[in-house]
Amino acid sequence: MLGTIAVQFSLTYTQMTSFEFRRSGQVLNGEMKLLLAMTPEHLEYVIRERATDDLRLVVNEAGIFTASHQPVAGELRVWPDGLVADGKLHNIVMEPEEGSPYALRFLAARAPGGHIVVLGRSLHVLDEQKLMLRHASLVTLVPIVFFALLAGTWLSHRALTRVEEMHEAVDLIMQGDIHERLPAGAEQDELQRLAGSVNRMLDRLEQLMRDMKSVGDDIAHDLRTPLARVRVGLERALSGSQASSAEALRSVIERAIDNLDQCFAIITALLRLTEIDNSKGRAAFARIDLAELVRDIVDLYEPIAESENIDFSFHCSPKEISVYGDRDLLIEMLGNLVDNAIKFTPEGGRVQISVSMSGHHPFIAVEDTGIGIQPDEKHAVLSRFYRSDKSRHIPGSGLGLSLVASILRLHNAELKILDTHPGVPEKGVCFLVLFPTSDLIQYDE
Amino acid sequence: MNSASLDGAEEIRVLLVEDDADIAEEISAELKSRGFFVAVAETGGIGLEQALTGQYNVMIVDRMLPELDGLSLIETVRQNGGRTPVLVLSALGAVDDRVSGLKAGGDDYLTKPFAMVELIARIEALLRRPDDTRQTVLRVGPLVMDLIDRKVKRDDREIELLPREFRLLEYLMRRPGQILTRAMLLEEVWNYRFTPQTNLVDVHIGKLRRKVDASGEQTLIHSIRGAGFTLQSSD
User: Rounded to whole angstroms, what are the CA distances from B198 to A264, A335, A386?
Assistant: First the structure.
């Protein structure tokens, strides 16, 4: 603020000075030119008469001197100290015997008669202007600084109050109140935008904490059940309450191993989920032909569909459709979807995979005529360990669709669960995997 | 079951580097029951010393060991010119962990917890690196596979196989008498690394078995409960 005022002041100051110097130079040179064109007598007459002339207002001092600087005519009676008769402008400070010194701009030139003509123009106006400028600046400076200080104080007080509020909110969050949020307002300034970002981060963290808690609960539940079965079985075998024949013991051990295997399957699937969710790298991503991928899966699952008497078919658009992704992960994703479709489709049913384009989005659809998914369960089936009541009797970890969702997240793809026969949930379900449009995807017409 | 040594004469020597005494005891007992000689080292340091001084046919190395970790142990052995096949045993099962295990010089990777049959099957697979370079005809008992004509015959009966069945049978025939787990078949025959929740592999094997073992013929493809499958002829 003060800097701006100082710059503005010095600019006006120098502009004013140079303008006044240029103007006095023009006046003195013009006047001198006129005077030098006169005869010596006429010149002397004009200089003498100047005392009564209006010209005095423009050229304040004038005089004629001999070559040895002796006054001949005019009101200027003393040769100014340091003046050289070179026809150039000189700024000289006159120091009268009485009064304060004052500055004049002089021009001295030799006249045809051998005398020297000296003309002087006072810089008094410039000094006055400068004084006025200084006064004006000082007068405006005070209120400007005052208002600036006032505004600054108000703004910083407001900011500090908000920072203080944020501190209080952060303290509350640190004390465990994870629902507390920073005051963000309408996010009109940087501080509010920062608070908004922090709030969104807190929302995400809260969501993650909720997920983690539910995963913890689910693990506890899903692992405890088979582990409890193992324990009960082994305890009974040890107490000998059941026939402790080698055959009976063998069956107890076999059941225990089956239950432990189920625990391991859950742990493996959970680790796999974490691995996929945490994998930042898309190092193994490459262009993948979807039809080829689906053909591989069909080849893998055909015999099992056949053995379950399920009609398993594959439709692919004649165009080459490719996506950018990790082949192994996509195989795993598709394997899980087909695995589910076959598992939940009763004998004599139908499972169909199709690959095509929806607008610019490549998609894979896995459709079955199985038990279907209730509308209110469509979101829940993607969460970890969710087993619908209808599927509880069918073996599995309950993590297959979570894995599918994780893999698709990594591919920025979307999973949609559609009814094949809207309104008739028992008539099967269609899992639609919608891939993003990518520059790397090429479509061969 | 296949418990004999490679060529039936020489004793197979296994070096087991594992710091968990219970697991080491179980593995060592199982291997010994199959006629293997087993040396157990409880720390990485001792394991390295034994690996460098003794003669072993195969090594089982736990990743996390006191003194010297498993991967450094394998790297040191490899730097010293040791070519003994190594099975890395680890609680870490992420792809990155597997990759680092194999890069360090491991030949196979097994994640804890594991089934004993899986461990044995993988050890046998390491010991019997198939000699598949020049062989064009595989024979197991009455079964003959011509890899060039892509034809399979059992005695004089020609067996028509789909490409995936051919691939599966070839894998089995290259490892006669060896237990092959479901995970191994999915990984090696189809090159997939995921656990299907359906009995996918069993169905494939079932279809193949119906073609290979016709009714009245001696069974060649055997299922082993809780383990996997094996192709074995009693001849």
Answer: 16, 10, 18
